[in-house]
Design goal:
Helix content is 26%, strand content 15%. Mean pLDDT is 91; it is low at 358-362. The protein has one domain (7-360): B-lactam Antibiotic, Isopenicillin N Synthase, Chain (Jelly Rolls). Helix 2 crosses helix 7 and helix 3 crosses helix 7 (151-175). The protein is globular. An eight-stranded mixed β-sheet has the order 1-2-10-7-12-5-4-3. It has a four-stranded antiparallel β-sheet with strand order 6-11-8-9, with no helix packed on it. The protein starts with 30 loop residues before the first strand and ends in a 26-residue tail after the last helix. The chain is built from nine helices and twelve strands. It is an alpha+beta fold. It binds 2-oxoglutaric acid and fe (ii) ion (FE2). Fe (ii) ion binds next to loops. GO terms for molecular function: metal ion binding; oxidoreductase activity.
Length: 362
């Protein structure tokens, strides 16, 4: 199993946020250094590969390189922007709900998705901003003034996040001995894709009714770069009879996880781990939880199937059938599967690629 994060070397908690409790079970995620990855450190490359196959989640220390520090600064700016964005009235925000037009960009109100088998509804709101819109790859969508005024900041955050995604894809490409550029070339920044920034807000929950805020899921793209300050994110580690454990937010770090596309590209060698968001633990339960995400997804037309050209990627087994689906269709299907307002056949539990990930039974 992986080494425990050493909390002593690094700041334990975020200023102005109640401490994350020490008495809850946390995921022993590997902690990688962006500085070392940028420097081409072989041991760090090996850790990246291990994290990608074992659990598909890791911490990335952004504080030890200029590139990372600049992204941390952009994330700070967007956390503030997220607060003003969600402070708009519900009527105003609902003007930017484009789900009726089969688009996952824009606003998602609280309480539209089923989170568990009892049929309880979600307890968080989202705003998804398209990378293509901000980068000028597609026509701009209507957006509230606070976002219109912040296009430069959004662009800077997207560029910084995408650069990290490209670095990680490039390293994994090398580790897999795939033909040069295979993975990065499926995720070009100027190509049409479902890449997006997501702002998330979850209000404190009533003391006697604390429930799942965001239902269990695997991310459906390639790589997710997540900024958390208040706890609540949980992962279900691989293996039989495992239990949900928290991912402790670490100052100066992003939480990075692999999505379904990486599982499909590697026929189950890499893992897209199931996760969810519950009420924050301990004293943090009284806090409003904001989080900030960059989702990198394959370009829209990319078919989500095993990549050719690597001996390390397991072959398609006899009788195994690969679904014929491109990135765009996969994302729409997964994004809307639990929406009471959009689909008749609710699938709250969709395991994404769990069935082809090699190390778990759900
Ligand atoms: O808010 C978080 O910490 C996680 C959000 C998440 O998993 C998602 O939006 O896919
Ligand atoms: Fe997620």
């Amino acid at each position: 199993m992986q080494s425990q994060v050493d909390h002593k070397e690094i700041a334990n908690n975020f200023p102005d946020i109640p401490p994350f409790p020490d008495d809850v079970a946390t995921a022993p995620l590997l902690r990688l250094s962006l500085g070392k990855l940028l420097a081409g450190d072989p041991a760090e490359y090996a850790k990246l590969f291990q994290a990608s196959t074992d659990i598909g989640f890791f911490y990335l220390d952004l504080s030890d390189s200029e590139q990372g520090s600049s992204l941390l600064g952009d994330a700070d700016t967007l956390f503030k922007l997220g607060e003003s964005l969600f402070d708009l009235s519900l009527d105003e925000k609902k003007k930017y709900d484009f789900s009726g037009q089969n688009s996952y960009f824009g606003y998602k109100a609280q309480g539209v998705a089923v989170v568990d088998k009892q049929g309880n509804l979600d307890r968080n709101e989202f705003y998804n901003v398209s990378k293509d819109d901000i980068m000028g790859v597609s026509n701009p969508l209507p957006a509230p003034g606070v976002l219109q005024e912040s296009r430069a900041q959004l662009g800077s955050f997207m560029q910084g996040s995408h650069a990290i995604v490209t670095l990680i894809l490039d390293i994994l490409n090398k580790q897999l001995s795939l033909p040069k550029g295979t993975l990065p070339n499926l995720h070009r920044r100027q190509a049409v894709s479902g890449d997006q920034v997501r702002f998330v807000k979850a209000p404190p929950q009533p003391v006697d009714d604390r429930r799942t805020a965001l239902g269990q899921h695997t991310d459906f793209g390639s790589l997710t770069v997540l900024f958390n300050r208040v706890g609540g994110l949980q992962v279900l580690p691989p293996g039989a009879d495992t239990e949900w454990v928290y991912v402790r937010p670490l100052p100066g770090h992003a939480i990075v996880n692999l999505g379904d596309a990486m599982v499909k590209f590697t026929n189950g060698l890499f893992r897209s781990n199931i996760h969810r968001v519950v009420a924050p633990p301990g004293l943090q339960a009284e806090s409003t939880r904001y989080s900030l995400v960059y989702f990198a997804r394959p370009e829209d037309s990319v078919m989500l199937r095993r990549l050719e050209g690597s001996e390390q990627i397991p072959r398609i087994r006899d009788g195994q059938v690969e679904e014929e689906i491109n990135s765009k269709d996969w994302i729409i299907r997964q994004a809307f599967r639990a929406r009471v307002d959009l689909v008749d056949d609710i699938d709250y539990k969709s395991a994404g690629t769990e069935q082809i990930s090699m190390k778990i039974k759900v």
